[in-house]
């Protein structure tokens, strides 16, 4: 996976394209994470939707989202680590989803 080497992207159009595809995939993953997190936490914490959230519902929803994001970041770091190890320990393309505030 030469596309993990940042020095190639400046001189190699194929590497630049691969980097762009990786960035778009990361954005898509972040969107899916937010969608799944909202769906899961909403179902878990808000049994009867109304015009506003109770403090209990709000706390449950916030806690659920924080746990979901922490788990996502842990899995993401492990996955990126394995990819880097397989690619010969090259530099990653952003690490965990930190660039999305996740």
From TrEMBL:
InterPro entries, alphabetized: Tim10-like, Tim10-like_dom_sf
Coiled-coil segments on the chain, per record: none
Keywords: Chaperone, Disulfide bond, Membrane, Metal-binding, Mitochondrion, Mitochondrion inner membrane, Protein transport, Translocation, Transport, Zinc
Residues covered by the Tim10-like domain: 19-80
Keyword Mitochondrion: yes
Gene3D superfamilies named among the record's database cross-references: Mitochondrial import inner membrane translocase subunit tim13 like domains (1.10.287.810)
Mode of membrane association: Peripheral membrane protein
Biological process (GO), any one: protein insertion into mitochondrial inner membrane
GO terms, molecular function: metal ion binding
UniProt subunit comment: Heterohexamer; composed of 3 copies of TIM8 and 3 copies of TIM13, named soluble 70 kDa complex. Associates with the TIM22 complex, whose core is composed of TIM22 and TIM54. Interacts with the transmembrane regions of multi-pass transmembrane proteins in transit.
Record-stated family: Belongs to the small Tim family.
Physiological role: Mitochondrial intermembrane chaperone that participates in the import and insertion of some multi-pass transmembrane proteins into the mitochondrial inner membrane. Also required for the transfer of beta-barrel precursors from the TOM complex to the sorting and assembly machinery (SAM complex) of the outer membrane. Acts as a chaperone-like protein that protects the hydrophobic precursors from aggregation and guide them through the mitochondrial intermembrane space.
Domain notes: The twin CX3C motif contains 4 conserved Cys residues that form 2 disulfide bonds in the mitochondrial intermembrane space.
Protein name: Mitochondrial import inner membrane translocase subunit
Organism, as annotated: Letharia lupina
């Amino acid at each position: 996976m030469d596309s993990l080497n940042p020095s190639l992207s400046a001189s190699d159009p194929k590497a630049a394209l691969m980097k762009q595809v990786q960035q778009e995939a990361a954005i898509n993953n972040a969107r899916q994470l937010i969608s799944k997190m909202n769906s899961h936490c909403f179902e878990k914490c808000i049994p009867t939707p109304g015009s506003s959230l109770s403090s209990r519902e709000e706390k449950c929803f916030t806690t659920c989202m924080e746990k979901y994001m922490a788990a996502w970041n842990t899995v993401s770091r492990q996955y990126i680590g394995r990819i880097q190890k397989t690619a010969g320990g090259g530099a990653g393309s952003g690490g965990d989803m930190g660039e999305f505030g996740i």
